[in-house]
C-alpha cells in the first residue's frame, strides 16, 4: 500500500512538537491537505543523538517525502536534511551557525515542554558542526526571515542563504509572527518543488 505524502517539521532549541508553529502546521495541513501527513518528531537534546533520529526519519519516509519545514535550530537541521535527500525545505528564522549562538548557552537547561534536563558544553557545540552545510546554492530552499528576531541576527542567515529563495520581512520576532499567513504558500512551495523533480 502506498504511503501518504509526508512533510517533516523540525522544531527549534528547547522546543517540541507541541510548539505553536508545529501545531499550526499540523492543523492547517489536516484541514486543507488531508492526503498529506505531517511528522513532527521530538528532536533529541544532544547532537550525538540527532543524526540517528534524522537518518531514521529519512529512511522511513524516503519514498513519500515532500520536504521539510524547520524553525530556528530546526532550520539548520532541515538544511542538512535537504542536502542528504535532495528534497526541498522551508526555513523559518533559521539558525545559520547555532554552534556559535549556543556558546552563550553553556550549562544546564530544562526543555519546558518535555521537562528533560540536559547540558550544553563546548563539545555539544562542536558536535553541532556535523550538520553544517557549507554551500547551499544548489539546494531547494525557501528562507523566511523576520528582521526583529530577538534571538538570532537575521543578517547572518540572509548572507548564508543569499543565493537561495530568500524573503526578509520587516518586524516580527524569533517566533515568526507571520507563520500562519505564510503556511498556504509554504505547502504550495513544497508541493511545487516535489512535482518539478518527478
TrEMBL record:
<keyword id="KW-0378">Hydrolase</keyword>
<dbReference type="GO" id="GO:0016787">
    <property type="term" value="F:hydrolase activity"/>
</dbReference>
<protein>
    <submittedName>
        <fullName>YqiA/YcfP family alpha/beta fold hydrolase</fullName>
    </submittedName>
</protein>
<dbReference type="InterPro" id="IPR029058">
    <property type="entry name" value="AB_hydrolase_fold"/>
</dbReference>
<dbReference type="Pfam" id="PF05728">
    <property type="entry name" value="UPF0227"/>
</dbReference>
<dbReference type="InterPro" id="IPR008886">
    <property type="entry name" value="UPF0227/Esterase_YqiA"/>
</dbReference>
